[in-house]
Specification:
By secondary structure, the chain is mostly helical. The protein has one domain. Helix content is 86%, strand content 0%. α2 crosses α3. It starts with a helix and ends with a helix.
């Protein structure tokens, strides 16, 4: 792949990672009670761990996004590992979150479109994370960070 094109893609994805980190932080900006309601009936310690992970993920995504622009390999590795962790966690907790969303939305409104929108947004972020891991683990990208 053309190095100039790869450099532009790295810059784009690092900005996307910064924005994604800010979205993660905004997502937990509400009360802890709202956050924990989304993950019930999970154990309280698990919910607290997910809350701290979400906060850490948001902060490190912003930091790593900034440092990826400077081709710092630790930032590339850290962001890939965090993203992989997020994907694994998502596989296990997303069914619970969607079930809780359906319950919460049906109590407020009968509009299935709201639930579908939230699921679509979650799917978009999941696809972003998968592509992010794929892109930043390719040999030609890894070489750029090894210089």
């Amino acid at each position: 792949m053309d190095t100039e094109k790869t450099v532009k893609q790295i810059r784009f994805l690092s900005v996307a990672l910064i924005i994604y980190g800010m979205v993660c932080l905004a997502g937990i900006a509400g009360s802890y009670e709202d956050f924990s309601r989304m993950y019930s009936p999970l154990n309280g310690d698990v919910i607290r761990g997910l809350y701290y992970f979400s906060f850490t993920y948001g902060v490190l995504s912003v930091l790593c996004g900034l440092r990826i622009m400077k081709y710092e390999n630790w930032a590339r590795i850290t962001s890939v590992m965090l993203t992989l962790s997020s994907l694994v966690i998502g596989v296990f907790v997303m069914p619970t979150v969607i079930k809780n969303l359906k319950s919460a939305m049906s109590a407020v409104t009968a509009d299935q479109g709201d639930i579908n929108s939230i699921v679509a947004i979650s799917a978009f972020f999941t696809l972003f994370e998968i592509f992010f891991v794929y892109f930043f683990t390719r040999n030609n990208v890894v070489r750029l960070f090894s210089k």
